[in-house]
Design a protein that fits this description.
Length: about 375
């Protein structure tokens, strides 16, 4: 793979905060970014050299975009696979369509993991109310019913505590492409982000611990306070899956850790991940630069931890307290340029470096 020289243009499909922070990292290395997004005034578009504002399935606009860039990456999974395939036929697209295809569908994802020796919770594909009844009989309760596609931040999933609650859960899920998972009695949730270069080189960040509020990531503690065995097993899962997917770019793996130290895969994302935002201030090379390096064919950077870091998302109205973070010792503020504050919307985040405990602004 020939490395792209500074001055080349990277295409980013998706206009959210992950694209924004990727474009900022690309600019530091002298690249231009061209963002493809249906959103006018998107977080990524605000900091890019060029923007194509079009729907993700607009093949003519995608073809013009492909002709204007030297390589492409994408910043979220809910892009039509056909669009990424169309781009990949015209311009190097990293990670490629395979990683997107696997991560877009929960049954394909968990089956892929199992086939490569990665442990998941017990699961069954569910396409009807009868399937669900059978799956509940096999897996037992509590169990989690999820749509296979387009779920994020806890949307498209329901917990079922008693088998007789199955029919109502099926009604309210309103999907004929679902998965039932045995609920994992996890002790903690962790994740690993790994970069893989075009020559197969791997660079993993250490496992981090994640805390959710209302199904949305709230806080990440880096590195995770886990045993060396758990930390190594988590990185091993990321290495196995990134290699098996033959992915060039970033792979985030979300994992459950049980009280006995078992590490089970929950899901993967072939892109920068919210639980990797700490790397902007706590690692030698942040996850966004690492993605840019992989996509541009540069050597991967050093993923080592410089300082323990705690990341907290600013969700919805929490962003209104942004001035208070400017003067806190150890705090670094990152805002995404989103105009409208909505409940549950990720507006920014704060990284506390040096292991300083996060200080919450007064209510
Ligand atoms: P997901 O969209 O699959 O990442 O799920 C969102 C959150 O729901 C996870 O971070 C967990 O807190 C919880 N969750 C999802 N699946 C399971 C499961 N099989 N067992 C226990 N908790 C789960």
């Amino acid at each position: 793979m020939t490395a792209l020289a500074p001055g080349a243009t990277l295409g980013i499909v998706g206009g959210g905060q992950l694209g924004r922070m990727t474009a900022l990292a690309a600019a530091r290395l002298g690249y231009r970014c061209h963002v493809f997004t249906p959103e006018a005034d998107s977080p990524a578009g605000q900091v890019a050299a060029a923007v194509t504002c079009a729907e993700y399935d607009d093949l003519a606009a995608l073809a013009r975009f492909a002709a204007a860039v030297d390589a492409v990456t994408y910043e979220f999974e809910n892009i039509p696979l056909a669009s990424i395939r169309a781009l990949d036929g015209k311009v190097p697209t990293r990670p490629g369509p395979r990683a997107l295809q696997v991560s877009q569908h929960r049954v394909i994802e968990k089956t892929f993991a199992r086939d490569h020796g990665v442990e998941t919770t017990a699961f069954e594909a569910v396409a009807s109310a009868d399937d669900l009844a059978r799956a509940l009989a096999r897996l037992g309760t509590p169990a989690i019913l999820k749509t296979c596609r387009f779920g994020y931040d806890g949307k498209g999933q329901l917990r079922i505590d008693r088998p007789e609650d199955g029919p109502a859960a099926w009604q309210s899920l309103a999907s004929d492409d679902a998965i039932l998972e045995a609920a994992v009695p996890f002790e903690r949730e962790i994740s690993v982000i790994i970069a893989r270069g075009g020559d197969g080189t791997l660079a993993a960040y250490p496992a981090v611990e994640n805390h959710h509020v209302d199904h949305i990531l709230d806080t990440t503690i880096a590195p995770a306070p886990v045993t060396p065995e758990v930390a190594a097993a988590a990185v091993g899962v990321a290495e196995t899956l990134a290699t098996a997917l033959d992915l060039v770019g970033l792979l985030a793996v979300e994992l459950f850790v049980t009280a006995s130290g078992r590490v089970l895969l929950n899901e993967i994302a072939p892109r920068p991940h919210n639980s990797g935002h700490w790397t902007q201030d706590g690692a030698v090379t942040d996850q966004f630069e690492q993605l840019v390096r992989a996509v541009a064919g540069l050597p991967l950077g050093d993923p080592a931890v410089v300082t323990p870091t705690v990341m907290k998302n600013l969700i919805g109205a929490a962003v209104d307290k942004w001035p208070s973070y400017l003067t806190q010792p150890g705090a670094r503020l990152h805002l995404y340029g989103k105009g409208e504050v909505r409940a549950g919307r990720k507006m920014g985040h704060v990284n506390w470096v040096g292991g300083a405990p996060p200080v919450q602004p007064d209510a």
